Each structure stands twice: as C-alpha cells, then as structure tokens.
Amino acid sequence: MTKAPDQGWRRARLAALAEHEDFRGRAALGRAIGYKDGAYVRQMIDGERAISEKTVTAIETMRGGKFRGWFDKPEREDDGIRFSVIDATSDGPPAPPPPDFADRRHATDSDWALLEDLRWLPADEIEALRARARKQREITLAQIERLKAEGKIPK
C-alpha cells in the first residue's frame, strides 16, 4: 500500500462513511463510487489499497457535494500531539458518549471502543489512566525537545 501521511485518517473516515445512513454498508458505498460492490472499499478500509485523491474527490463530489469536506482533518489549536480520546490535560474524568450518541464520524473504531469501555470504569481507574497519560505525555514531549535539540526534527 502507498504510505501517504493521511491514510490512517482516510481509512477511518471511509469506514465511518460506509456506516453512514445514506449507505449502511460497504457494498452500497462501493456502488455509489462506481465499483461493482464493496470489495474495493473493504480493501481501502483495511489498508490493502491506498485511498487516492481521485477516490476522495469522487466521494466529496457525489450526491451534489453532500460529502464535501468529509476527509478534511479538524483544525487543532494544541501542539498537534494526540495520545487518545482521553485528553491528559483536561480536568475531570473523560465524558463518555451519551447513550443515544450515534454519530461516529469523529471517532475511529478504536477510539469508539475506548469510549464505550470508559463508560463502565470507576472514577479512580479513570484517574489512574489520566495520570499515566500525563506521564507519557511528559516523556514524549521531552523526547521531542531532545530530538529538536539534536537537529533530528525541525524546530
């Protein structure tokens, strides 16, 4: 597979689109894009094939542009480092999704599973996870600063 820097994001967004109410499955999405069935869509979601600009354009322009911007990454104001759906610097325990929350467009499958698991964790276990995340964040930021100082990554 081609190693484009945004393939992980594209796979997550394509998987979410396949579950969108307009398609409700890979086969319907594949037919909407112009394929015989959902096999090629499955291969793209599973990372066996790259999701090209041509595919992104086809999806974003189909149905009168209804899905324009579907593959755009959200703007971030933080340092750009994302460890998990649990933000280690926020106050209080992470809020699980409400029981009727059905819009998964902004969560990968693994993040969604984590949110579902967090719903049942006691507060002390959540705090322990937050402490570990804060410590890992500190370690990672220190490693980034060291690599910048050594000139191995741009400042």
Give the oligomeric state.
Answer: single chain
Radius of gyration: 19 Å
Uncertain stretches of 5 or more adjacent residues: 82-89
**Ends distance:** 30 Å
Indicate the overall shape.
extended
Instruction: Look at the helices and sheets and give the structural class.
Output: mainly alpha
Mean pLDDT comes to 77
**Strand proportion:** under 5%
What is the N-to-C succession of helices and strands? HHHHHH
Largest β-sheet summary: none
Number of strands: 0
Would you mind describing this structure in some detail?
With 155 residues, the protein is an all-alpha fold. The protein folds into 2 domains: 7-65; 74-155, no CATH class. 50% of the residues lie in helices and 0% in strands. The chain contains 6 helices and no strands. The protein has helices at residues 7-18, 26-33, 39-45, 53-65, 109-118, 123-149. Mean pLDDT is 77; it is low at 82-89.
What's the short story on this structure?
The protein is mostly helical and 155 residues long. Helices cover 50% and strands 0% of the residues. The protein has helices at residues 7-18, 26-33, 39-45, 53-65, 109-118, 123-149.
